[in-house]
Amino acid sequence: MRRIDLPVSKELSGRTVEEILRRRGISRRLIVKLKRTDGGITVDGKAARTIDTASFGQTVSIAVSDDKSPQEANPNLKVNIVYEDDDLIVFDKPADMPVHPSHKHRLDTLGNAFACVCPGLAFRPINRLDRDTSGLCAVAKNSYAACAFAGKIEKVYTAVVCGELSGEGRIDAPIARERESIIVRCVREDGQKAVTNYRALASDGHYTVVECRLETGRTHQIRVHFAYIGHPLAGDGLYGFDKSCPRQALHCSQMRFKSIASGEEITLNSPLPKPLLDILKR
Fold it and tell me: Which one of 48, 141, 146, 150 is CB 3.0 to 4.6 Å from 43, fit for a cystine?
């Protein structure tokens, strides 16, 4: 059981407990669960109802427990941990590792690695990387953190694309599922809005390293967008034909977020893996 203290700010003074919790990023579903839990919601240590009000200087506290089953642990998996506190853990995921266990991947995933370092906790990844995409992957340690961090972690991706690019650009093109495929995505007018902003960092004339920031989070968004503008990712066998890399050259290289406990802004970095850097040396 994780108890989380939420001091009432001047802005929220006089609001109901439910309003305060909602403004602090707690979902209605979790609030309902907290109401049913003995001591689930308190104000200054005393049991509180969601219709009660709280004032500046008081502290609303919630008791969060897991109702999801943990993944099976695999002690043979070693994944570098970049950051950890009571609510969040950030891994530097290697390529060729799925995030979620599945029928074909039962014990070789980030979920199995998480179960080793956080035994008994449910696996709640905040950002999901493709199996062959490497880099920073954040996992919430409780349901409150999963709500609080959803959509609140700023991520920067680094990719190596085919061809020469310079300057900055914005790709605004809707993405949809290919009608005959479960996996493949494409740019299509009836798709969901998708926007990728990029900045070229270096180029050797044949390949370009680009920094990407996403305004939306569609499946395969970076891969689809760069293929669409004629610069598919190096090594991407699904959306391109380049074989300079054993997998798509995509890496989550930076994360920025605020700690729940301290409010401190945290910035994490992961350097581009050697196989991706080596593309420019060929």
Answer: 48
Domains 2-64 and 66-151 share a fold: no
Pick the CATH number of 155-252 from 3.30.2350.10, 3.40.50.300, 3.30.230.10, 2.30.330.10: 3.30.2350.10
Count the Cβ atoms, other than its own, within 10 Å of residue 196. Answer: 26
Known active-site residue 85: no
DSSP state string for 170-227: EEE--EEE-TT-SS-EEE-TTSB--EEEEEEEEE-SSEEEEEEEESS--TTHHHHHHH
Name the average pLDDT for the chain: 93
Q: SS3 for 43?
A: strand
Closest by alpha carbon to 279, among 159, 168, 169? 159
Q: Cα–Cα distance between 145 and 274 in angstroms, integer?
A: 33
Q: How far apart are the first and last CA of the chain?
A: 53
CA distances from 91 to 42, 98, 99, 128 (A): 33, 13, 11, 12
Tell me the backbone φ, ψ of residue 278, rounded to 5 degrees.
-65, -20
What's this model's pTM, rounded to 2 decimal places?
Answer: 0.86
| pLDDT tens figures, 232-249 | 999 999 999 888 888 999
Residues 18-38 have pLDDT tens digits of 999 998 888 888 899 899 888
Beta bridge partners of 267: 256
Among residues 130, 132, 236, 242, which one is catalytic?
130
Instruction: Please give the single-letter amino acid code of residue 42.
Output: T
